[in-house]
Amino acid sequence: MNKIIQCVPNFSEGRDLDKIEQIVSAFRGKNGLKLLDYSNDEDHNRVVVTLVGEPEPLKAAIVEAVGTAIRLIDMTKHEGQHPRMGAVDVIPFIPIKNVTMDECIELSKAVAQALYEAYELPSFLYEKSASAPHRENLAKLRKGQFEGMAEKVKEEEWKPDFGVAIHKTAGITAIGARMPLVAFNVNLNTNDIEIANKIAKNVRHLSGGLRYCKAIGIELEDRGIVQVSMNMTDFTKTPLYRAFELIRVEAMRYGVTIVGSEIIGLVPMDALIGTAEFYLGVEDFSHEQVLEKRIME
Amino acid sequence: MNKIIQCVPNFSEGRDLDKIEQIVSAFRGKNGLKLLDYSNDEDHNRVVVTLVGEPEPLKAAIVEAVGTAIRLIDMTKHEGQHPRMGAVDVIPFIPIKNVTMDECIELSKAVAQALYEAYELPSFLYEKSASAPHRENLAKLRKGQFEGMAEKVKEEEWKPDFGVAIHKTAGITAIGARMPLVAFNVNLNTNDIEIANKIAKNVRHLSGGLRYCKAIGIELEDRGIVQVSMNMTDFTKTPLYRAFELIRVEAMRYGVTIVGSEIIGLVPMDALIGTAEFYLGVEDFSHEQVLEKRIME
């Protein structure tokens, strides 16, 4: 694969393994496409699929998988803990290699259009593909969920980007381009959740912290400690080490120290290489010096 | 490529670009093989080639390139600053992916045998492939250089592993398996070379330091500072951060601090990911979580 785009479609079926396999089968054995992972959650009643591919094969496979999902999933009968508004809840496209964000935006729009033409499935464009700033955030788009969506899309500010009304059984889908997310959690040597909450508040963008950082405090009850749980939404601009070092400093105020960290799920190599470069103070390093990058070229 | 071995053959021709191209052409356009880099040095009169490949294609291409080198290079007329003992001076094999060190040792022996059968080119097995501990070190094998080698190989302890006498025009070649080398230099905010020399002495294996670290002091005259210049000979056992942090501590004694570092040439991704893991204190991280590793699989 020359150009590599990552795609992480979320389908609203987490219980019926046969249906899940039918949906995922669209991503198997295709040229220019690779299925990396899929994991279903029964409580959420949702399956999260991770694949990478070149733009055209990715588009074709997504259209195929969404067709299967629309056929198999009836949102009027769907229940689950995770907020959702469609049989295919969200389809993000993420630039990985030899691909710009603009190309991912273009792909997201082409996919949204193809899905409307093939299945009359309406969609919101979100994140970098959004048609207005108030439509960037997935949580805001999804508010009201499937059950409230038929009414919501009648409002001018929530008019779908493709289509007009929701699909009767498949609802509506959010489609867009975004940077890779890194789920990065930092553990503290205290069991005081208030301290984790305060530190989370100080490091996150929402309340005055780092631009590309979302954070909440979490209790790890079995270990008797707390954690600042973060989503790093653009590690190229807000690197992991910056959040880590800021938490270290903020924690000092409470006489608390960091005892470790976690990276959940997949992480782009560059996020870790950038961290190593920072701590070793490496001068004039090109990522082309990384052997595996050269092999992948 | 499923199994990936890196090979860095050194040929004793650094001036005649036409001859260099003829030698390197063996590594172009072959299935299961990728030429990553080659750079010649006129003073050294030597070209260093970096390639990766699966064992069999790698072996075939090396045998072809060595045949060309023997035809084009006459060591009786060779001069250059770099120590050398053969038209093909050294051929190291390095495990990169889905390959054990034992498989690289096996390949090095198979290549040595093939080169003797094809061209009557004798060889020493070195590093992990060495037939005795005193034959592991390349510098010791090469001592006496091409000009002294005809006599040296008559001594029992320097008997070639393949062949008996040297090749009249191509000399003898060192062939073996080794870990990837990382050339890692740490810069200090002093111009006192004695301080760099003392720190180098303290961190290197030879004089009581880290097991897989070679180090010398170097002056960076244009910047008015000095450097501890290192070869990390097994970053999986002596990681980069350990040398870096030890230098930091040793430097404190002289009131000196680290101002930066350099990584020269190619570096395996795992060397940098391990560094990031250390500084962020990441718990339970699997390198399978690195997106690019998953894509390469």
Automatic annotation (TrEMBL), chains A, B:
Residues 180-294 form the Formiminotransferase C-terminal subdomain domain. It comes from the Bacteria. Residues 3-179 form the Formiminotransferase N-terminal subdomain domain. Gene3D superfamilies: Formiminotransferase, C-terminal subdomain, Formiminotransferase, N-terminal subdomain. Pathway: Amino-acid degradation; L-histidine degradation into L-glutamate; L-glutamate from N-formimidoyl-L-glutamate (transferase route): step 1/1. Keywords: Cytoplasm, Folate-binding, Histidine metabolism, Transferase. The keyword Cell membrane does not apply. InterPro entries: Formiminotransferase_C, Formiminotransferase_C_sf, Formiminotransferase_cat, Formiminotransferase_N, Formiminotransferase_N_sf, FormiminoTrfase_cat_dom_sf, FTCD. It is found in: Cytoplasm. Its EC number is 2.1.2.5. Pfam families: FTCD (PF02971), FTCD_N (PF07837). GO terms for molecular function: glutamate formimidoyltransferase activity. NCBIfam families: FtcD (TIGR02024). This is glutamate formimidoyltransferase. The lineage of its organism: Bacteria, Bacillati, Bacillota, Clostridia, Eubacteriales. The gene is ftcD.
